[in-house]
Amino acid sequence: MSIVGVVSMKGGVGKTSTSANLAAAMVAKLGPDRVSVVDLDPQNALHWHFGLADDDSGGACEQSLRSADWREGLLQSPAHVACLPFGSVSEADREAYEALLALHPNWVGEQIARAGLSNDAIVIVDSPPGPSVYLKQVFACADLVLVVLLADAGSYATIPAMESWLAETNNTQAGCKVFYLLNQVDRSESLNRDTAAYLRQQLRNRICPIEIHADEAVGEALAFQQPVLDYEPHGQASVDLARLASWVIDTINQ
Predict the structure, then answer these.
(1) Which of 35, 130, 172, 211 is most buried as measured by Cβ atoms within 10 A of its Cβ?
(2) Phi and psi at residue 125, in whole multiples of 5°?
(3) What confidence tens digit (pLDDT) does each residue in 46-83 have?
(4) How far is Cα 81 from Cα 181, in angstroms, rounded to an integer?
(5) In which region does residue 36 sit, left (phi positive, over 0), alpha (psi from -120 to 50) or beta (all else)?
(6) How far is it, in rounded angstroms, from Cα 79 to Cα 73?
(7) What's the pLDDT at 243?
(8) Element housing 153 (H / E)
(9) In this model, does residue 207 exceed pLDDT 80?
(10) What is the CATH number of the domain that holds 205?
(11) Structural domain of residue 88, as residue ranges?
(12) What is the reported pTM?
């Protein structure tokens, strides 16, 4: 089993849409019943990308607080991606969950292992932006982490913070591979294009060779609560995500 973390140091970079659409693209490569997603973001938005309504079975937060098996909370989506939402919870429950995660640094990895997924399963974990107890959990269990960036000054400014956090944390799993992923690249805008080129020059082999281009179909697909590969399978973002899925599969198998 392999775990892929999708993280960012700032909001608004398309991290959750990347998590959802990458999962759907991987299903297209690997077939159904191989890919699951776990939502560690208290915004609890990941399941919307798959047309899943809030469920009474509870998400990762509630399942953890009552020491229940995470597999019980997995929701099967029409896209053949099994999704464990964060869950709609009270502020008190969220704080209790974060306290539990702080007390047990390997909690997420242990719960994924307990879920009884197949040996060839791939789990994508979406976390909230910025340093947090959730981010530590991702790095403690992931085989591959994608740090989502936009080709703009705001994202560029977050790179030193991420590099510093990586240098300081002791929770990174041995052998975890970390790559920056450029999202929403618009080659028609000179500033965006130049910033993307600069980021590639600065990050060199730390940046994913695949980038996701700006595509209105991604937002439209979310409005219809479905992955962009289902909504517009031949669009630019869908082509990029298919290439990214192949690269991720190859990278975690190296």
Answers:
(1) 35
(2) -115, 125
(3) 999 999 987 666 799 999 999 999 998 999 999 999 99
(4) 22
(5) beta
(6) 17
(7) 98
(8) helix 153-168
(9) yes
(10) 3.40.50.300
(11) 2-252
(12) 0.95
